[in-house]
Write a structure and sequence with these properties.
single chain; 0% strand; globular
Length: 84
């Protein structure tokens, strides 16, 4: 799966939780879920659960702690997919 495909799927997953739509339209690898998209911490857990379901992976606490930006999330997802 390419980085663009991962980003597209990730964008679809986070869209319902985003409070700042301008941030979603200007999404980049440096986009921070909390600061730029205004996703609250409770919904961030929902994002993690949705990512696990979408990609058929399990994300441990270390992975969750890293998943604060698009770039970090893509790296965690890629690592977990590679380990399957």
């Amino acid at each position: 799966m390419t980085k663009e495909e991962l980003l597209s799927k990730l964008k679809t997953i986070i869209e319902p939780y985003v409070q700042n739509q301008d941030g979603l339209h200007n999404i980049s690898e440096d986009t921070n879920f909390i600061e730029d998209l205004e996703i609250n911490s409770a919904n961030l857990v929902d994002v993690i659960l949705d990512v696990e379901d979408e990609f058929g992976i399990e994300i441990d606490n270390d992975g969750m702690d890293k998943m604060l930006t698009i770039k970090a999330s893509i790296e965690v997802i890629r690592d977990k997919l590679a380990a399957k």
